Amino acid sequence: MTALHPPLARRLDSMSAVLSAVAAYVPPNSVSKLEQAVLKGVNPTNDKALLAAVTQAIQAGLDPLGDAYCVINSPEARRGRGQTFTPDFVVEGMMAWVRRQRRSVARLVDPGAGSGRFTLAALRAFPKAEAIAAEMDPVVALILRANLAAAGFSLRAEVRVADFRDLELAPIKGTTLFLGNPPYVRHHDIGADWKAWYTKTLRHFGYEGSQLAGLHLHFFLKTLELGRPGDLGCFVTAAEWLDVKYGQALRQLLTNGLGGKDIFVVDPEVQVFGDAMVSAAITGFSHASDRTALRFAEVGSEAQLRKLTAGKPVTVEAAKAEPRWSFLVKGGRAEKPEGYIELGEMFKVSRGTVTGLNRVWVASPGAPDLPSRFLVPAITDSTDITQAKAGVIENAKELRRLVCLPRNLQELGRAERTAVERFLAWARSLGAHETYIAKHRNPWWSLSAKAAAPIVMTYMGRRPPAFALNQAGAQLINVAHGLYPLRDFNESQLSRVVAWLNENVQQSDGRVYAGGLTKFEPGEAMRILVPGELAL
């Protein structure tokens, strides 16, 4: 659904052409003020052949206007707005799951409707249902309205140009189906007011949550707030919530009031989000449903996605007890082999320092000079580890420098303070004081140096992680993790640990994303199983 048929591609090759086609379907006086502003000065096309082709494609289940929007607007531009349009094989599979629930759907709610792919599919599947489609972007909302008009569904659907979290629903008789692809927006781009709403609403339902949660978790929570017992839901999202700490709130909701039923985790090789490097999970649920188990399944192909066959049942109690649900997808946590322990019994694994803006805080030739005592040797690139000879980083002179300034500048002598203030003025000119991280540091320039980690490891790549002995005593930024011993180890013992980890840790021990990208969060690294003899 993301590749336009060539004749349409040639005629819908700009946003002006797309809006001109949209205006032929959507009367300006029937839309919101935001949409009216978009259509101001846009003349409806009089190309009857083009409109006939667009209408025919939409009625056949295609999305030529949405596809044109995706071609014209780059993935990078859409990513900032959380816009990832759903391919047809995912829509088809999620509708297959909905139909298997054997419910008569009276109302559809599409929380991040986009061009209406889920909305139209559900209206076709349930001829008596009505729809409420929430879409914040007025341009995309207009494409949605045009699709509804061409399909003959305008009278059965209400488009709300609004944030789904602001949505209110009137009570109805019958089942409401919440269906769609919530926008993928990371917590950095979510305002403080909405983060406060998230934690407050979670507490209302008796749960605690992290403000690091992405927007898709907000949408699950809003669905719980809006839904009534017996309602249905099916969302496709990034899969990271299965394991990460901030996903715990959603895991709790699914084992309680949100009524999780089926979790489908898609193999990273299957591109659900073709323009975003994340793995996908499809979650089916039914509010307050009386069930004793959730079902987990791996999906390895587009053909399987179109069917979404139910997976293996896991009791609700077992799901509540398991902090990492990816193990449940694979049939449960593997038994610890005899003689093995978790790496976390030997080391605490911590992320490197998050600078907020590496081009400022990692010293470079273009920056104002600073006294050498404020420039600390640091591991600033994963290649510092992957290219370390024999797994040892020993020469600090070969490393770049991390800028570590004192918290209190009043204590500096005149010459040092002048140099530091010159540097900070330069840093401000690059916006270093306005990053999310800087705003949460006090003062904003203070990157506190930590004790050097004796062992360092890469945590993201298309290969197993690399480990190295940090003989240089280098600091570490967030390109890697540091391993801090929980007991006394001599250098010989640390070298044995590094050698074993480099030879034995596999990509499958971490979390695999789309395109084969593997990530090890600190908790995942600490769960790596190692021979107990390494601790001796």
Description:
It contains 21 helices and 22 strands. By secondary structure, it is of the alpha/beta class. It has a 9-stranded mixed β-sheet with strand order 3-2-1-4-5-7-6-8-9, sandwiched between helices. A hairpin with a 5-residue loop joins strand 20 and strand 21 (518-519). The longest helix is centred in the last third of the chain and has 16 residues, at 414-429. The termini are far apart.
Question: Main attributes?
Answer:
alpha/beta, 34% helix, globular, 22 strands, 21 helices, 536 residues, 5-stranded mixed β-sheet
Overall 3D shape: globular
Measured on Cα atoms, how large is the radius of gyration? 26 Å
End-to-end CA span: 58 Å
pLDDT averaged over residues: 92
Task: Specify the helix fraction band.
Answer: 25-40%
Structural class: alpha/beta
Strand order of the largest sheet: 3-2-1-4-5-7-6-8-9
In what range is the share of β-strand residues? 15-25%
Low-confidence stretches: none
* Total count of helical runs of at least 4 residues: 21
Beta strands, count: 22
Largest sheet geometry = 9 strands, mixed
Strand-helix topology:
Layout: H1 6-11, H2 15-25, H3 33-39, H4 48-59, H5 64-72, H6 75-79, H7 88-100, E1 105-110, H8 117-125, E2 130-134, H9 138-151, E3 157-160, E4 175-180, H10 192-204, H11 215-226, E5 232-238, H12 248-254, E6 260-266, E7 280-286, E8 293-299, H13 302-307, E9 312-315, H14 316-321, H15 326-329, E10 340-342, E11 347-351, H16 358-361, E12 375-379, H17 383-386, E13 392-393, E14 400-403, H18 414-429, H19 436-439, E15 455-458, E16 460-461, E17 467-470, E18 475-476, E19 480-485, H20 491-504, E20 511-512, E21 518-519, H21 522-526, E22 529-531
